[in-house]
Structures are given as structure tokens and as C-alpha cells.
Amino acid sequence: MSDEAPALRYRFPVFLSYRRNDYFDSFFQRVHFHLEGQITQHLGGEFNPCEVFRDVKYNGTGSESPFHFAQALAGSAVMVALIAPLYYGPESPWTVAEIDHMRWRSGSTKCATPLIFPILMTDGDLSLLPEDVRKILWTDLGSLADGNLKQNTRDDAELRSKIRGLAPRIAQAVKSAPAPDRTWSDRAEATLGPAWQHRDASSTSRQQELLRLGDRVP
Hints:
Blueprint: E1 12-17, H1 25-43, E2 52-53, H2 55-58, H3 66-74, E3 76-83, H4 93-109, E4 116-120, H5 131-134, E5 139-140, H6 154-176, H7 184-215
Parallel strand pairs: 1-2, 1-3, 3-4, 4-5
């Protein structure tokens, strides 16, 4: 009997990376819905279940932690990044850590196919984005990034059409992605840990500020 460990497999075909913003939550939901539907059509037979990782879908179990997200990031074949001006900068260390991990993986494995698919959400200063990310072929969804986006509307149908056009490239990249490595989880956790501490501190500060504002309401 062989003592070799079973071959490691990706858990998720796609990791959806974005900077949380309550206003755009309905847009995030629709992107995730259409993306997961299209990826399932292309890769449903290779992943069971075929899911696109989005943080809020998995944090309701009390398992939200740097380790939890590091496992999801390391266990995803490629990344779709929803880019806005604050995505890559000191205000968003967690999204910086996410995309930098995937950039490191792409470079360290010398992968010939892209592992990052940037989607433009809003116009603005994107000069802080690394040059290698800015050189990737982008998908522009800026005209559809609306916090009031609803299903079964004209804009939602256009969003579905744009994601349908992008899905074959993503599916091909998933199929061509380098074999997963067990050391990626440790590296992802080391990268996300400090960012997570900043995230918790920012969240606590924001809650305290909201409480202070609430105290001023007569």
C-alpha cells in the first residue's frame, strides 16, 4: 500500500477579491451570482461543488479568521479582483494582501496564463496598483457598478452578458493553473494575519465613531 499523500486539489476555482462597501453590496452579490453561474457551466464537472469564494458567503459560521481566509485564498485557482481607487493602498491592507499573494504565486510558479482577472468598478486614481496588474487585460464594469442594482433589470442583464464573455478566459486559466502547493496556506496566513489585525482595528474604530455620532443625535 502506498504511503503517498493524495494529490492536493483546489477547493475553489475562483476567489472574489473586493473592498467591502455597504453601498455596493447588491452589485457584489450580482457579480458573484453571475460569475458562479457561468463558472459552473464551464467547470461544474471538475469541482464539486463548484463555488466562487466570496467572504460574506462563508463568514456566518463563526469561522472568519486569517486562517480561514488563507485556506480559501491558497485553495483557489485564480482571482477575480473588483478594482476601485481604494482597493490597493494603505486603507485596504487586506485586499492588498490578497492580490499580492496571487501575484507572488504567479511569479514563483512562472505561470504562463494569468491568475488575476481585474474588473474595474469605478474610475479614479489607480496609480498605486502594481504595474504588472495594470498591464493585465481588464474588464470594465464601471457603468454597471451601482449600489441599487437589482436582478431582472436591463443593467443586470448587461452585467450577466459581460461576465459571460469573461467566463471562458477564467475557466481556461483555472484549467491551466499551476498545481496547488501545501506551503501556500502558511504563506497566505502570514500575509493576511497583519492585514487582519488592521482590519479589526479599523472596524472597531468605525463602530466607536458611529456610536459617538449616535450620541450627538437629539
